[in-house]
Amino acid sequence: MEKTELLNKLKTIIKPYSNDEAAFNAMTEDSDFITDLKVNSANLVDIILDIEEAFDITIDNTEMERMMDVRTAVEIIEVKIA
């Protein structure tokens, strides 16, 4: 899967949980889920569960703790689907 396709799929997952539409529309790999996209911590868990389902992967607790921004999420997904 190409990175652009991965990012688009990830954006689709994140969109319903972001509480700041302007920040979501300006989302980059440097965007932090909580501070930039205004995703609350409970919804961050929902995003991770949705990522697991969408990409058919399992994210362990250590990876989950690291997954605080888009870049790290992409890196973890890329490793898992490789």
Categorize the overall geometry.
globular
Rg, rounded, reads 11 Å
- Count, helices: 5
Give the integer mean of the pLDDT values: 94
Order of helices and strands, N to C?
Answer: HHHHH
Helix content: 55-70%
Strand content bin: under 5%
The tally of beta strands, per DSSP, is 0
Explain how this protein is built:
By secondary structure, this protein is mostly helical. It is built from 5 helices and no strands. The longest helix is centred in the middle third of the chain and has 15 residues, at 41-55. The mean pLDDT is 94.
Task: Please render the helix and strand layout as text.
Elements (H helix, E strand, L loop, with lengths): L2 H12 L6 H5 L15 H15 L5 H6 L3 H12 L1
Helix pairs in contact: 1-3, 1-5
Entry keywords:
82 residues; mainly alpha; 5 helices
Question: What's a quick, concise take on this entry?
Answer:
With 82 residues, this protein is mostly helical.
